[in-house]
Write a structure and sequence with these properties.
mainly alpha; about 70 residues; about 60% helix; elongated
């Protein structure tokens, strides 16, 4: 096996592993960063990542209010 072919195979393997990790994180979404597009389960996202869940909640209610009070999640 030539050096060029070995480098191409190695980079392809690294790319496949990284793509699999990214896809798994998007599907599982352990910190509710990507939003729950399947179930739209707000309370589950709130327990995992309160800040991201609050942003998603505010984004969903965009037209209902004139202003929001933004502060720390604690």
């Amino acid at each position: 096996m030539s050096a060029k072919r070995w480098v191409i195979m190695f980079l392809s393997a690294v790319f496949i592993v990284v793509a699999a990790i990214v896809l798994l994180n998007v599907l599982v979404d352990p910190f509710s960063v990507f939003g729950d597009v399947v179930y739209d389960w707000y309370s589950y996202g709130m327990t995992n990542n309160p800040k991201a869940a609050k942003f998603a909640y505010i984004d969903n209610l965009r037209g209902q209010y004139d202003a929001f009070v933004i502060g720390p999640s604690g």
